[in-house]
Design goal:
single chain, 94 residues, elongated
């Protein structure tokens, strides 16, 4: 029976490649992901306003309606939370 050349390094000696939390950093939470989604939605809405003069939120909920104002406030809070998260993550860089 023919033998195969054994690899130079066994699997258990290879560095871990799984997406794990590195030492000194924190993983993103569900709130972080929700804030990111809201920021993307808000950014796309502003892109639509700038490019096509169409406010999607106002179109969906009515201009100046309480529902559209709530959406704008939630997106603004997501932006403030993301500023906090960015400063928190920047502390772990160095």
């Amino acid at each position: 029976m023919a033998t195969m050349n054994a690899p130079t390094m066994e699997r258990r000696h290879l560095p871990e490649r799984r997406a794990s939390v590195r030492e000194g950093t924190t993983a993103m939470t569900g709130l972080d992901y929700a804030a990111m989604v809201l920021l993307i939605i808000g950014g796309l809405n502003w892109a639509m306003v700038g490019l096509f003069d169409v406010d999607v939120v106002a179109t969906l909920f009515g201009p100046g309606s309480p529902a559209s104002r709530v959406v704008y406030v939630i997106v603004g809070l997501a932006a403030l939370y993301s500023i906090y998260t960015a400063t928190k993550l920047s502390r772990y860089k160095h």
